[in-house]
Each structure stands twice: as structure tokens, then as C-alpha cells.
Amino acid sequence: MNITEVKQEAQQELQTAVTAVEQAQGELRAEVEEHEATVDMDTKTEGDLQDNINELKAEQEQAVEVSEAKELQKQVIEAEEDLKLTQQVNEKMQEKNKEKIGEAVEDLLKAVKQARTTFKKTDGVMLKNTSISTIEADAEQMKEPALTINNGGRYAKQTLLDFKIITNKDTRHRGNHLNAMDSTTELPYLFDKQVLRDHGVHSL
Asked: Which of 88, 138, 141, 193 lies 20 to 30 angstroms, CA to CA, from 9?
């Protein structure tokens, strides 16, 4: 293979790893959105039940007959039991959703870890096969993958923090490192800055 083909092959391998990150991040985002929708719905349901209890209690206070007051009291007790059971069921469902979110985070972190390894490998190929005439284009090719990988890692960690699965002090989650260094290309440091400027390269 010639130099161009070698670089293209490395870039294709990197793109496959980056796509895996994008897919894993999309699946995690979907789990988060589903959980948030469930919480909103549960909050509304519990609020409606509490409103009903408040209305029944208000009616009970206004009752002028013992039989009516007793019936309303019975309804209040039943409504309060319904609310309690609903809260318990909702809490269990939300905990299950959090478990699914934790699993989706783990999948994303694994994809990010693999992508970081592939990025480093690809960057090595680019460093070995670049030249003054191609270095700007080569470095540009590495920017978007780096951004996607790094954003994936940050999103995973922030999600863990948001759902209190970890604290700021934690550096690992299920064996995955949370504070890994960002993926960055070494191409801008390959040639002396003055040499680059002499050859019209100013964007690195």
C-alpha cells in the first residue's frame, strides 16, 4: 500500500471506533430521556393523587352528617394507601431505570476506551506518514474524532454524577477510568513552528 492508502485504512479503523462511541452515547441519552419522562409522569400521577386526598379531606371537614364524614374518611384512607403504593412502585421502577442507565454508561465508557486506543494508534500512523504538504489536512482529520471521543467520556462521567451513581472523588466506575486524558493528536508538534510557517502552514 502507498502512504495515502495506509492513512486511509487507519482513518477507517478510527471511524469505526468513533461510530461505536456515537451509538453508545445515543443509547445512553435515550435511556436518560426515558427516565426523565418517567419521573415527570410519576410526579404528575402522585400530584394528582395528593390533590384528590386534599379534596376529600376538605369535603370531610365540611360534612354535616356522621355517615357522610365516615364515608369520606374511608375514601381518604384508601386514597392515601393508593398514593403510598404508587410511590413505592414508581420508586422501584425509577431504580430499575437507573440500573439501565448505569449499564448504558458502562457500554459508552468501554467504547470510549477502545476509541482512545484506536485514536492513539491512528495518530501514530499519521505521524509516521505525514509531510509538510499534508500535515494540515492530516491534523484536521484527527480533530473531529478526538472531539467525539472526548465528549463521549465527559457525557458518561457527567451522567454518573447527575444520577449520583458516583461522586466527584471517584476515579473509576466498574473498572473504567473516568479521568483518562483527552485524545489529542501529536501532529502539530511534529515539525518546528518556524519550519511550518516557512512552508505556509499557519493553522496548527
From this structure: 193
- Return d(Cα 1, Cα 126) in angstroms, integer: 14
Cell of 56: 376529600
Q: ∠ CA 156-159-165 to the nearest 5 degrees?
A: 105
The string of pLDDT tens digits covering residues 80-139 is 999 999 999 999 999 999 999 999 999 999 999 999 999 999 999 999 999 888 888 999
For residues 187 and 129, the answer to whether their CB atoms sit within 8 Å is no
Confidence band, pLDDT 50/70/90 cuts, at residue 152: very high
Q: Residue 187, by phi and psi: left (phi above 0), alpha (psi -120 to 50) or beta?
A: alpha
Can you name the residues that pair with 173 across neighbouring β-strands?
A: 176
State which CATH number among 3.40.50, 1.10.287, 3.30.1330, 1.10.1740 fits the domain covering 3-198. Answer: 1.10.287
Q: How many helices (H) and strands (E) are present in the chain, helices listed first?
A: 4, 2
pLDDT digits (tens, 9 = 90+) for 170-204: 888 888 888 888 999 998 887 666 666 665 666 66
State the Cα angle at 105 between 121 and 95, rounded to 5°. Answer: 170
C-beta neighbour count of 191 within 10 angstroms: 18
